[in-house]
Amino acid sequence: MGSAKNTTSAQRKARIEEMRKAERSRERRTRILTITASAVVVVGLVVGGVVLVRSQSDKSDTSASDSKGGGSGHFVAGKDGVRTWSGKLTRNHVTKTVKYPMEPPVGGDHNQVWMNCNGDVYTKQVNNMNAVHSLEHGAVWVTYNSKAPDADVKALSEKVKKTPYTLMSPVEDQKDPIMLSAWGKQRTVTSASDPAVNTFFSEFVQGKQTPEPGAACTNGLSQ
């Protein structure tokens, strides 16, 4: 009997020890799984945060730098000599330099501050990004290069000074001596006396093409 009791007791102790080992093993597995899961969550949060920051940065850079005036497109010439930009012109306010696909630009992303365009005549080249904002407000932008006759420059400047929602400035890189631009619209004129000047002003100063009709042309930049 004694031997049987000892055997039973030993078996019970062995069983208890096996159960304890099994419990310790489960606890170790649980701790490992918990640590692993926590690490995965942390890594996921870090990676997600990095992706989000990069995504926002890329989005910001795309809209603020190396933008081409809101996307691809080209001018379509009308019978009246006015060329209309075929692509969509975006209107985001950005801080970095925008590379426009036309010169002078007729729209696209631009600086949040406009050039004063209440009949303002600038003798030095203005920032395209500020001038484009003026076009968004419905202004007509008269530009010229060094090939334009002085008499035409003077006559056009007098006309601009008398016309609200217009501005004028030199743009040396433009392809023709005298050009007129509005939002999404542009044409070349032969001289200050070209009848197309009055026609362009009548149609596009606060015309139907204006994205923000009635927006201010004062209290902006005056160079």
Automatic annotation (TrEMBL):
Composition bias, Polar residues: 1-11
Source taxon at top rank: Bacteria
InterPro entries tied to this protein: DUF3105
Pfam short name (any one): DUF3105
Biased composition (Basic and acidic residues): 14-26
Alphabetical UniProt keywords: Membrane, Transmembrane, Transmembrane helix
Positions of the UniProt region annotated as Disordered: 1-27, 56-77
Transmembrane residue ranges: 32-53
Protein name, as recorded: DUF3105 domain-containing protein
Provenance organism: Streptomyces fagopyri
Phylogenetic lineage: Bacteria, Bacillati, Actinomycetota, Actinomycetes, Kitasatosporales
